[in-house]
Amino acid sequence: MTHQEWAPLIGPEGSDFVAATLAEQVPGKAVKTIQERAGLQHELCTPLLGMVDQLGVSRAEAHRGVLQAARQALMARVQSLDAREHRVKLERLLNASFKYLGMYELREVPFAVMEKLENVPPVFLKQLTGDRQIFRDLPAKVQRQVWEFDKKLLQADALAPVGQFKYEVATIMRALAMDEFLPAVLAAAATKGAKDEPGSKSAPAPASRAAAGGRGGGGRAAQPRPSPVTGITRKILRKGSRVLQVLKGMVGTSQKIYNQIVELCITKYRDAEGLYVGFKELSYCTLRAQLLMALHDDNSAVATRDACHELAWTLDAGIMNGQLTDKHLQKLMKFFDDVSQAEQKRESIEERKRELARERKKKGNKRTISSMLDEEESAGDRTGGGGMVEPYRVLGEASIILRDPSAMHLLAAAVLQARQGCTG
């Protein structure tokens, strides 16, 4: 009997075989043909089944026992294989077991093989996109590979948590707390006023007297450096956000998935249908910044590769501190100076390309412009090519992070404090 004749009755192929056999043969013969194809082929199987019948073991129990033994043997074999040394063996085993995904008792085997492989072949990833039930049961590592393979599936799965973030209590409260950093401004102004007032070197500032409740003293002098604004730091809010935990789980170590989720946040903010920019629209900006910082909290390499990492980190530190210090402001200035310099470099490269194109056309040079730029770079001219990120795109993403309500409130408070310093 050939392999095709005894292939298991699994999936569409098995269904078609059963339907065709029942249509072509009389019922008794059709059942026998199906049993011959689907039955265990070892010569000892028939007498052993007869023996278990005599022992009072039902065929269903015998079937479950065989499945369990086969699953345990295969799982032990999979775990013993090295993903790199035995990649071909694992792929062959995946090809043989993939059809059993529809059988709950055996799907553990192809799941384990796919998780063991460093990269699941695209032909299997494509099939996994078509069955949502099986996809939900896949190991997280395999799910990420499917999302990387199918951008539409990723967006469909990420859309719900991204949309739910706007309804989290912390998101709403932080967006509405427009005065969250004013205590720092008022405290600094009160302290400065008390110091500047003649003969009141040791007198408490007005803000301190108010804080003392008019009891004639006992209040501590206001300090320019406040405690954290809300009592709950952004890091704690990140850990408590269900949406952020879901999205972090989706990202894992995949830069591609992270970039696509960030792109989704930007698209949702850009295409918002509101008549004005309210907290619901701004939630996408908060989510973009908080997802980056959540990965930063985990020391993820995905966060460090984000071009806006330094900007988000600096703003987050300022928000936690309650004000922007000189060090924070210097880092912000450096970030935007670097973007400006990168744009100037890009413009010089484009101009140099145009010059080389004119020279090439004039002299009839057959070398490509890229090869000419590479020669200049190897000779010491560093204005040549390179994989530079587009500065304007970085600036656009930076604007999303700056529009996070807490970041905007912090910057507004810094402007007020600077204005007080100029007019004081």
From TrEMBL:
<dbReference type="Pfam" id="PF06209">
    <property type="entry name" value="COBRA1"/>
</dbReference>
<feature type="region of interest" description="Disordered">
    <location>
        <begin position="347"/>
        <end position="387"/>
    </location>
</feature>
<dbReference type="InterPro" id="IPR010405">
    <property type="entry name" value="COBRA1"/>
</dbReference>
<dbReference type="GO" id="GO:0045892">
    <property type="term" value="P:negative regulation of DNA-templated transcription"/>
</dbReference>
<dbReference type="GO" id="GO:0005634">
    <property type="term" value="C:nucleus"/>
</dbReference>
<feature type="region of interest" description="Disordered">
    <location>
        <begin position="193"/>
        <end position="231"/>
    </location>
</feature>
<feature type="compositionally biased region" description="Basic and acidic residues">
    <location>
        <begin position="347"/>
        <end position="358"/>
    </location>
</feature>
<feature type="compositionally biased region" description="Low complexity">
    <location>
        <begin position="200"/>
        <end position="212"/>
    </location>
</feature>
<protein>
    <submittedName>
        <fullName>Uncharacterized protein</fullName>
    </submittedName>
</protein>
